[in-house]
Request: fold
Amino acid sequence: MKVAFIGLGNMGGPMAINLKRAGYTVQAFDLSADAIAKVRAEGVDVAASAREAVQGAEVVISMLPASKHVESLYLGDEGLIKLIQPGALLIDCSTIAPASAQKVAAAATSQGLQMIDAPVSGGVAGATAGTLTFIVGGPAEALERARPVLQAMGKNIFHMGDAGAGQVAKLCNNMALGVIMAVTGEALALGAAHGLDAKTLSQMMAVSTGRSWATEVCNPWPGVLENAPASRGYSGGFGNDLMLKDMGLAVEAAIGVGATVPLGELARNLYAMNKQAGRGGQDFSSVVQLMTKPA
Ligand code: NAD
Reply:
């Protein structure tokens, strides 16, 4: 089966590589030469443009930064919706506004295509290991068609409802993650200010009630976990600007239905302050540096 894969960044690159390893014929594309070089080195075929990548594809997957990129790819400048072969299945794995996902899905359906929103959780480590969680919105029939493709890149699949429901659920998850990361940094900074060793404090928390992904997998303190972005100058991982985008989408989603998200609003401001401090391109765990400069 031929799969077009557009967007080969921190997440899309390893996902495309896993699809290729699972035996799919992958035609990939990205605007960045660096991103292309990484997947090419793993034997993935790269097209000269998104338009070329989707030619003859039965499945089209996109993994782009934000709503504007997804709308532009399918509806705007690239206008892929009109070029993709009728009957094809579109899977957008980017985290975008639920309203954007609904708009693109409606346009796809009107062109005789099927579409699901399937944002992911699990980070770069999950994308690389093929253990992502897919959080899906769209028709059940389209999800069943997508299931084997998703299983080549992940291990858990949740069907949340109609088009856009996957995005709403993903925003709920990331709003919780954003708050938890910020407060974990705050707790470690408090301990360090009292002379505690951040590694021992993290090890204790990881088996106590303060445990979370932020203590155990992506600890914000340098040197606590060898493979965490904090231990490599906050590079790779999940960018602060992407977290800021997701927190903003979560707050907008709350405003849309009159929900109260006081901690989400507060944490959104922390990621905005972290961006203003010049760390927009770093992993979002660098938010700890608003509380202290970890040694
Ligand atoms: P990234 O910035 O590393 O990658 C995005 C890629 O899209 C870049 O390589 C960029 O060149 C490419 N791109 C942009 N516009 C394009 C276009 N028109 N055509 C082709 N390529 C284009 O971002 P990422 O970390 O891979 O995240 C992608 C999405 O996944 C985001 O929506 C993010 O919120 C979400 N996400 C990220 C993580 C993570 O840990 N990084 C985890 C879960 C979800």
Observations:
- The pocket of nicotinamide-adenine-dinucleotide is lined by residues 6-12, 29-32, 35, 50, 63-65, 69, 73, 94-95, 120-121, 123-124, 237-238, 242, 246 (CB under 6 Å).
- The domain at 2-162 is CATH 3.40.50.720 (Rossmann fold).
